[in-house]
Amino acid sequence: MNAHGALLTSEPPRHSDGVPDPRQLPSKRLHIATTPRPRAHIDLAIKQAGRSLCRYRVGAVLAKGGRVLARSSNRYRNHPGIDFRHATFHAEEMLLRRTRIPHGATVYVARVNNAGGPMLARPCSRCQRALADGGASRVLYTTSTGPRLMRLN
């Protein structure tokens, strides 16, 4: 028992009908953020790509030591009819705008088709340079046959 007389258990508090109180359940985001498996980070990048409203839907996740530090999808910068060359912020650019990349971090990049299946998401040369300059040591990106690893120098 604690100082208030409540019993200390690892079980979340339950309603009288036996259902766990949703306000007391651990956050699913916390569970994802501490998962050390690269597959979970790729899956999170695929989810981020699914949220994109752009024609080519790309998502990116920044992780180090099994922790997710930032995540983003590509976004429209301005109307494509006005500025076709720079119509979107790449997902990698959005990560760089959101947080500083710690040295040795890994970036996971995913692209999905209309059905939600993974496609080739190799970062462009501009994003590769920006990620390397920012401190990322490697990039895992999706292909139609599975993830690929790219080391940044």
Provide a concise account of the structure shown.
The protein has about 150 residues and is an alpha+beta fold. It has helices spanning about 30-35, 40-50, 90-100, 125-135; strands spanning about 55-65, 65-75, 75, 90, 105-110, 120, 135-140, 150.
Structure notes:
The chain is of the alpha+beta class and 153 residues long. It is globular, with a radius of gyration of 19 Å. Helices cover 24% and strands 25% of the residues. A hairpin with a 6-residue loop joins strand 7 (136-141) and strand 8 (148-151). The chain has helices at residues 28-33, 38-50, 91-98, 125-134; strands at 57-64, 67-73, 75-76, 88-89, 105-112, 118-119, 136-141, 148-151. The longest helix is centred in the N-terminal third of the chain and has 13 residues, at 38-50. The strands form two sheets. Strands 1, 2, 5, 6, 7 and 8 form a six-stranded mixed sheet that branches. Strands 3-4 form a two-stranded antiparallel ribbon.
Task: Provide the descriptors you would attach to this structure in a database record.
single chain; 153 residues; alpha+beta; six-stranded mixed beta sheet; two-stranded antiparallel sheet; 4 helices
Question: In terms of topology, how is this protein built?
Answer:
Blueprint lengths: L27 H6 L4 H13 L6 E8 L2 E7 L1 E2 L11 E2 L1 H8 L6 E8 L5 E2 L5 H10 L1 E6 L6 E4 L2
Parallel strand pairs: 5-7
Antiparallel strand pairs: 1-2, 1-5, 3-4, 5-6, 7-8
